[in-house]
Amino acid sequence: MTATSGLGSPRLASPDLLRSVFRRHAAGVAVITAQGLTGPVGFTATSLTSVSAEPPLLSFGIGTGASSWPAIAEAEYVGVHILGEHQQELAATFARSGADRFGAPTEWRSGPEGVPVLDDVLAWLVCRVVARVPAGDHRIVLAEVVLGDPSGTGRPLLYHQGRFSGLRD
Question: Residue 74 belongs to what domain range?
Answer without folding.
Answer: 27-149
